[in-house]
Amino acid sequence: MRTLQTRPGFSLKIVALALLAAFGSAHAADDEIAALIRPDSSVSIGAAGVTGAENERSIFGQYNGLRRQDAYLLLDLDVIKRDDATGTWTTLQGRNLGLDTREIRFGQQKQGDWKYSFEYDEMIRRDPRTINTSLVGAGSTAPVVSRLATAGSGSDVNLELKRKNTTIALEKWLSSSLQFEASFRNEDKNGARMFGNGMACPSGSAPSPLCTTGVTQWAQLMLPEPINSSTQQFDAKLNYASDKLMLSGGYYGSFYSNQYQSMAASINGELSNPLGNQMGLPGNGPALGAGLRGMLQNPIALPPDSQAHQFYLTGNYAFTPTTKANFKYAYTHAAQTDNFSVFGGAPGGRSDLGAKVDTSLYQLGLTSRPISKLSLLANVRYEDRNDKTPIAYYNVEGNPATTAFTNGNYSPKRLNGKLEGTYQLPDGYRATLGFNYESLDRGTFVSTNSVAGLSGLRQKSEETGYRMELRRSMSETLTGAIGYSSSHRSGSAWLKPLSLSCTGLGGLSDAGRGVIVGDPSLTSVTACATFNNGIYGVNSIFPSSMTDRQRDKIKMSADWAATDQLSLQFMAEWGQDNFSSPGTKGLRSSYMGFYGVDAAYALSEDWKLTGYWSRGDQTMHVDHSTGYLAALRNLSDSYGFGVIGKPTSRLQVGGDLLLIDDRDEYKQRGGSTANSTLLSRLGGLPDVTFQQFTLKLFGRYALDKTSAVRMDLIHQQTKLNEWTWGYNGTPFVYSDNSTVTLRPSQSA
Amino acid sequence: MKFLRQLLASCALLGALVGTTAAVAADAPSSPGAKPPAKDLVLKGDAKCTTCHDEADEPKLLHIGKTKHGTVADGRTPSCTNCHGDSDLHTNNPAKLKERPATDRSFGKNSKTPVEARNESCISCHKKDAKRSHWEGSAHQRADVACTSCHQLHTAKDKVADKRTQPEVCFTCHKEQRAQVMKPSHHPVMEGKVACSDCHNSHGSIGPKLVKRDSVVETCYTCHMEKRGPFVHSHEPVNEDCGNCHNPHGTVAESLLKARPPFLCHQCHTPHGGQIAQLRGQLPTQPTINSSGKSGINYTQARGCVNCHTQVHGSNNPSATNPTPQFNLR
Fold first, then answer.
1. Residue of A246, A274, A398 lying closest to B287 (CB–CB)
2. Closest C-alpha to B308, from B293, B329, B279
3. Whole-angstrom Cα distance, residue A551 to residue A574?
4. Extents of the domains making up chain A
5. In chain B, where are the structural domains located?
6. ipTM computed for the complex
7. What is the pTM of this model?
8. Nearest CB to A361; choose among B26, B214, B300
9. CA distance to partner chain A, nearest, from residue B200 (Å)
10. Are the beta carbons of A21 and B42 separated by less than 8 Å?
11. What is the pLDDT of residues A37-80, one digit of tens each?
């Protein structure tokens, strides 16, 4: 705010009024003020052109709706009216109306009384990668696979996923302290995304004699997942507010409905062998076995319909002006009873999963300032999930059957607590000390549930931590903070999946596990499978979300208004996690660092400059059980420069330059002599690099008080050098010779 | 400027002498010598302030009239002094200081008003809003974030209320997220289709990281409900926290994954075999027609482990026969 310079007799307001008195109508002054205080409406119409081929702008056009065509209509509108006599607002807003990311919203409200709105919103994601395939019906529930003679000779398929949202909301103040709010949102989602299947035959999951060729065969297929689903969310609540109490109670329902329950591919003819040659031809091994063909054609489940109903009560209460509480209780009943009819082989007596999960959530927080210099916070949160889904034998392994597996039952209880105090010290210092606690009790596992590729499970993990922060306002123009936090996670003894043998690790327990009980109808089920013995050895990997972890973090920041024109922000952050488990493999440690500086400089009232640089540096050390030891590093630099100014009273110009330089490094050592030799011959995995240069310029010229022309120029260059879908000119090829590509160097 | 000002003033005085209009006549004091009553420009009782801070002084201040706060017909809307305090020292400047004392409560970036006092100006009215029920004790409240650090009141377009400009406000502090949203795999934040506030309630929530709903998974399910299940074969980390595998702000790896498979999956899973990550075209020895499908290539390239374990979020396939779906294969 600028303070008025007082000079008796020379107030600009008097000047203005006097001038009007002499030369104009008083209405002119009213009009001027009205223009300053009445809501504005605007319409913006224009055209956009995009250069380059479609695959040259696939990253640029991933979400913005500017990929498919070269020219677009740009149309935005804001119609905002207020009836000043009643305080009633009417708004109509449109965004991107000429694009397939359009949004339109209409609303009315009498402020402090009632409100309603309708909103329609489209969002599109165009996968930046292109599939080259002979697949017929890509993105349908019944795609037909036939092998391309050569990779790259098929048709290009570009996948996209479109969301269409409709939202209706209303509010009504029933009295000065009672308000009703309700909203309904429907989203239709259509399109396809990358998906597929793969199978080796024979394998643990597909043992002989299912596999009919007598030799190992395998195949992998790119089968886009068809998506045609809708979600509905309904929220209704009653809010009560008095001087001390705010209370909100309501219902939140969420419903997911999928038009497709499953998809199944048909395979015409042959697929490729591991060399990429057609199976069944002389020298190329046997033809695609009926067993593997059948497995690849099996139905693949798509997401099932589900629903959840939540009732909640939340709010806060002020005991005194300096001591307050907030709280929430929520009860949620979730269910999934999508019928199994499209699948074969469901367990006897089960026509659907019959999933029922009841969750109760409790939260209580207290804040207090017992003395002016001391602030205290205490918070506790407890979540109790109770999975009531019936257990049934959904899988039988081996032929004849040797092992039966059931679905799981996941009923975790999570407790979080926090205690924190902040004290105002002399000389502008402020110190904070806080303690955190978290426990996650996953409950007793269902002994008959097979957990894929896991060596051990932990019933309970607990984490305790503290944080310290010192903050100081060093002057009116300089503030700074430094914080340190540390936490340690440990837990109960590890439990092994009972179906697996224990080979060489101590400190493990079967406590809390039941005994495998075979399905009475499967007389040959035995208590312990043997095919996975090695999985529970000294080279085991224990899930990183359950292992012991020591986490330390330091964070520093400073804001400095160096001069009236120049302001600077500095920040630096370092963190380290160290993991430990009964074995020595899996995620062992991780490190993160983040540094940055932002600057803003006002050249004048009309011209401003901004700039920033930041660097993120993260490393994870992951040890594969027997294959490799990896140090995965991501190093990312970002730069931004901006300028905005008004060369004349009518002209405004501006520009932004953004640069990103990102590199993923995959340093590896062989986990065995053989792999060390292999790795040295391979040369390891190359770095994945991503660089992007974006320049945005705009100019806006005011034709008169109510209209202006604007021109925007956006230029983006992107380089993504990845090996995910190909390396050094050699594409990754699916078994039907489908390939996926992304133009590594793009410009739009 | 001084000359121009004096010239304008002279013209004004001249105009006042020679010109009379109906409007001026209407505003004229009813009795000679009486001080004309102060007239509000925008808000009820704002004359105390707008006598000086008028359209000629700082026209942008009057833009509050374009906002909900400027809807005078709503009896709850404030006047200047409700937020800035009575500010008599500022108004009267009894010490005749060259630079007037600041208002009782000021909100600019060099404000000396404690953040708590600044925020009280807003909370005293907005405490009735259920979405702000958990402001006290929230991360932003504890970090001394002022309401006006994010919100602009004297403008028709509050940047943080428009999803196209909101990220620019949030990135003032959240620099790491600013860098992440520009990576190739990201939510359309910079494209203006997803706002920070679609996932976070900056005014406080009971979930971690101020997520909008009660937990990370419940927040993600609002748009990705197909991942919710429950499934016949669940992947428990999905139920615990999507953040176990995904960085929602952006990654170079596809699908917002924190690391590419197989390295991501190997943080929990003991994989089959002792393969080392390999690329097609990089092999020192070519595969044979009998090479295993569980190769270093097949779990490294394309979708990695997910090439076969395609149902990574869970499968509702009830088939009880081989090949078994419990490894999330189909």
1. A274
2. B329
3. 11
4. 549-624+628-670+687-722
5. 54-85+113-232, 259-283+291-330
6. 0.90
7. 0.89
8. B214
9. 17
10. no
11. 999 999 999 999 999 888 999 999 999 999 999 999 999 999 99
